[in-house]
Design brief:
453 residues, alpha/beta, FAD/NAD(P)-binding domain, Enolase-like, domain 1, 3 domains, 5-stranded antiparallel beta sheet, 20 strands, binds flavin-adenine dinucleotide
Length: 453
């Protein structure tokens, strides 16, 4: 005997929960099934890493003040990492509670369990107690997130995935980070603030290869000044455990460290879903194929969040969930990846929105670029102690902005402002109509207006 439901969502992370709340407004029956409430967002990813990253920022500010401005009798200050761990757990639980309250308010039923397709409109849910119930759905959303890929680099049970960094009990003296993308540099910044000796190994010729080479280079220079050892154009071929150390092998020679984390990307979590039972096709990499309105080859099944592999961050999770949920209720909205901001909470901050110079060139646009560098005016307790570096791409004929990338203090706020400027297609003539609180932004907007007008 199967039960019937209008909307069923698989995966109870930010994407699933956001879609559930939107769908509940239809007045129809909504069920959300997940292995954990809050998804990996609450258990291993954003919430925990955010707490740790914020704590490391406070710690570094304290250290700067202590070393430079406090009298000598403030000694023997040690970090109690076990208490920080407790803080991480408390915040993760608070986050889960918010998820539960929101679902309850929307009258969405949450089922703790694992789901897989058993037909084109059928899903089997196996609960935590081991009971399996079949549901017949009208529309379904897959929001199962992403997982660390299997690795052949290390033949040991210990999990070296970056998510494990939130479970550490003690701070290591030295850390090797394999992969210099968004997660790699975020984790590297965390350890640098606490004074660990950090090495980043990246197989591309630069860190943050999704950013413009100009920004990447400035970023790399800043990290080097902070003492981070950066090895680019090298691939790690094997990791060994020797005594209390890890040895990562590459052509650059062995890299020895007390801890090592793999930040080499994540893959869509689809292996348990039995997609073929529902006629949902995947590409050669096993990723779900879907259209620009997030609909799969089964017209009643949609995707949102990390599992869609368009982007893997919370902004995309919420935005794609909104697009998918509205389409499930009958709309026909296509997603636009270009209005999505990317923000990396590292030292220094880096963020971007819109298209890069390379993309403007590929599209044959008549574009210009404008670069801007502002010196550090916040020396005191400024962890990055660096410049603000900005690069914009604009269309020459319309004098509208196509994209912007920024590194340094306030980069995320600037990108937030540009999210509106780009979406509304504001022209450079309209820029002086606004007053910006931040002195760096005011300077930048003055300069960009002068140059482009
Ligand atoms: C270490 C780390 C730090 C991060 N920090 C940030 C950050 O600072 N800012 C940011 O924006 N993003 C960050 N991210 C990314 C962010 O966590 C994800 O983009 C976000 O959680 C995606 O939400 P989601 O709902 O798509 O997936 P998830 O949050 O992963 O939720 C999906 C859930 O579905 C469950 N599931 C899978 N298969 C099934 C099944 N068959 N049946 C039932 N349930 C299933 C999974 O177990 C999971 O609980 C970080 C990621 C990592 C790894």
């Amino acid at each position: 005997m199967s039960k019937s439901v209008d909307y069923i969502i698989v995966g109870a992370g930010p994407a699933g929960a956001c879609a559930a709340n939107i769908l509940s407004k239809s007045g129809k029956k909504v069920i959300i099934v997940g292995k954990v409430l809050g998804g990996s967002h609450c258990s291993i990813n954003s919430t925990s890493s955010e707490v740790l990253v914020n704590f490391s920022k406070s710690f570094e500010k304290f250290r700067v003040v202590k070393d430079s401005y406090l009298s000598d009798d403030v000694e023997n200050v040690a970090l109690d990492f076990k208490r920080i761990r407790k803080l991480v757990d408390t915040n993760a639980n608070k986050s889960k509670k918010v998820f539960l309250e929101t679902l309850e308010e929307s009258e969405v039923e949450f089922i703790e369990g694992t789901a897989c397709f058993s037909g084109s409109n059928m899903i089997d849910i196996t609960t935590a107690e081991g009971q399996t119930v079949t549901y017949k759905f009208k529309k379904c959303l897959i929001a199962t997130g992403a997982v660390a890929p299997k690795t052949s680099l290390y033949n040991n049970k210990k999990n070296l995935d970056v998510a494990a960094f939130v479970n550490m009990e003690e701070l290591p003296e030295s850390v090797a980070i394999i992969g210099g993308g968004a997660l790699g540099v975020e984790v590297a910044s965390f350890f640098t603030r606490f004074g660990s000796k950090v090495t980043i190994v990246e197989k591309n010729d630069r860190l943050l290869s999704m950013f413009d080479p100009y920004i990447s280079k400035k970023y790399e220079d800043t990290l080097k000044k902070r003492g981070v050892n950066i090895i680019t154009s090298h691939d790690i071929t094997k990791i060994e455990r020797v005594g209390q150390k890890y040895i990562a092998l590459s052509e650059a020679g062995p890299i020895e460290s007390e801890e090592i984390f793999l930040c080499t990307g994540r893959v869509a979590a689809v292996s348990e879903l039995m997609l073929e039972s529902a006629g949902i096709n995947t590409d050669e990499k096993g990723r779900i194929i879907f259209s620009n309105n997030l609909q799969t080859d089964n017209k009643n099944v949609y995707v949102a969040g990390d599992v869609s592999h368009i982007m893997m961050n919370s902004s995309w999770a919420y935005y794609s969930a909104m697009v998918a949920a509205k389409n499930m209720m009958g709309a026909d909205i296509e997603y636009t990846a270009e209005i999505l901001p990317v923000y990396i909470d590292s030292d220094p901050e880096v963020a971007m929105i819109g298209i890069s110079e390379e993309q403007a060139k590929e599209r044959g646009l008549d574009y210009g670029t404008f670069k801007y560098v502002f010196g550090d005016i916040y020396g005191l307790a400024s962890s990055s102690g660096s410049q603000t570096v900005i690069k914009t791409v604009y269309e020459k004929s319309s004098k509208t902005f196509l994209g912007i990338q920024a590194m340094g203090r306030g980069a995320n706020n600037l990108i937030g402002i540009f999210a509106i400027i780009i979406k509304l297609k504001l022209t450079v003539e309209q820029i002086p109509d606004f007053v910006y609180i931040d002195p760096v932004f005011n300077e930048f907007f003055n300069e960009v207006t002068e140059k482009l007008l």
